[in-house]
Design goal:
Elements lengths: L1 H10 L5 H30 L4 H32 L9 H22 L6 H16 L2
Keywords: Membrane, Transmembrane, Transmembrane helix
Length: 137
């Protein structure tokens, strides 16, 4: 997933090399954290089912875990940037600021970040699904 983000950003002539590296590392870290969770979820869902179901389960579970964890890492980074202007911790205002900042970060990730998974990430996801189904035999 990091390679997919790198390729998309590089071909899109995006910002500076340092910023491209940061986004690439974010996507690679999110995918690395999500892979074992996605595989575990796919094993639970596809247990005792046919090969096609295993491919679909791996595809959906890995995609959901990768997007969820990468979005979560993005939200943490986003939140840490805006924390300087937020109210003192654990006050009512801080809770509202924390919740809405996190929701806005997740929305921005869905709108702007998911496109970085295409086309390389989609191909890798399909390949991982087939690999998962073949391993179950």
């Amino acid at each position: 997933m990091g390679a997919s983000a790198l390729l998309t950003l590089f071909l899109g002539d995006w910002e500076t090399p340092a910023k491209i590296l940061i986004v690439t590392m974010l996507f690679a870290a999110g995918a690395a954290l999500a892979f074992p969770i996605g595989l575990f979820a796919a094993r639970l869902v596809s247990q005792g089912r046919r090969w096609e179901v295993a491919v679909a389960a791996a595809f959906v579970c890995l995609a959901a875990a990768t997007i969820g964890l990468t979005g979560g890492l993005f939200a943490l980074q986003y939140r840490s940037y805006y924390a300087e202007w937020h109210a003192p911790a654990f006050t009512r205002t801080w809770v509202l600021q924390f919740v809405f900042t996190t929701l806005i970060a997740l929305y921005q990730f869905v709108v702007l970040g998911i496109r970085l998974y295409f086309p390389v990430g989609f191909i890798a996801l399909f390949t991982a699904g087939v690999w998962f189904a073949r391993q179950r035999r």
